[in-house]
């Protein structure tokens, strides 16, 4: 029987807490790097068609790596020194500041121009989707890693609360980037002016829509990722 040969087992993230840098984390980064390089290949093919679409695609994909790397550092640090709360808080704030850049690339799909009779339309559709997909995967993996850091450092209740709060905040960050054309580093370079804008627009209808719908999207995708990574079918 199938279930006599296989069993569903739960992966306990505390189980390997003595391993600060794990092979799983390194392999994940290498795999995501390969996926990102493949996205650039799509863009090079597009140049052969009719010139580059917009090199901001590559820039936005690069920006999706910032929260991924910050989350990886937070994950490693939480394994090595789980009691150093200030460092985890600083890394978490930095991660949240750049995290919206990852799912932001979903909104780049609006750049697709449709002409069903041209092959370039179908290439652009695949290319834009692929860029958005890789960037979104970077964001979801970063969310998984930083969530692990929160659970290890702050405990289950606070870690899960921070997770739930990060989802609508990411949606609002995408609104600020797409509609208000703000960048993540604007808060750092001119905090007084831009923090005022952030607070002022938080009750805008479009802002609420972005925050709620992206929170739902990210939440459902993260739930799938969490289940797949936390539970797996193992051969006995």
From TrEMBL:
It comes from Ravibacter arvi. The chain crosses the membrane at residues 21-45, 57-74, 86-106, 126-146, 158-176, 207-229. It comes from the Bacteria. This is DUF1361 domain-containing protein. Keywords: Membrane, Transmembrane, Transmembrane helix. Pfam families: DUF1361 (PF07099). The keyword Transmembrane helix applies.
């Amino acid at each position: 029987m199938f279930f006599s040969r296989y069993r569903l087992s739960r992966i306990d993230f505390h189980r390997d807490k003595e391993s600060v840098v794990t092979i799983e984390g390194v392999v994940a980064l290498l795999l995501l790097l390969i996926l990102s390089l493949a996205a650039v290949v799509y863009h090079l093919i597009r140049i052969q068609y009719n010139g580059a679409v917009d090199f901001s695609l590559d820039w936005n994909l690069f920006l999706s790596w910032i929260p991924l790397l910050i989350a990886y550092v937070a994950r490693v640090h939480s394994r090595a020194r789980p009691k150093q709360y200030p460092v985890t808080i600083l890394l978490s704030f930095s991660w949240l500041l750049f995290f919206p850049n990852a799912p932001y690339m979903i909104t780049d799909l609006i750049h697709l121009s449709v002409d069903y009779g041209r092959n370039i339309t179908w290439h652009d559709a695949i290319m834009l989707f692929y860029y958005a997909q890789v960037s979104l995967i970077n964001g979801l993996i970063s969310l998984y890693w930083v969530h692990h850091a929160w659970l290890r450092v702050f405990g289950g209740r606070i870690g899960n609360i921070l997770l739930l709060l990060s989802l609508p905040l990411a949606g609002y960050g995408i609104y600020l980037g797409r509609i208000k054309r703000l960048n993540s580093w604007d808060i750092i370079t001119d905090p007084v002016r831009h923090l005022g804008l952030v607070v002022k627009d938080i009750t805008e209808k479009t802002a609420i829509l972005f925050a709620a719908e992206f929170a739902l999207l990210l939440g459902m995708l993260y739930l799938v990722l969490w289940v797949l990574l936390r539970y797996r079918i193992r051969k006995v």
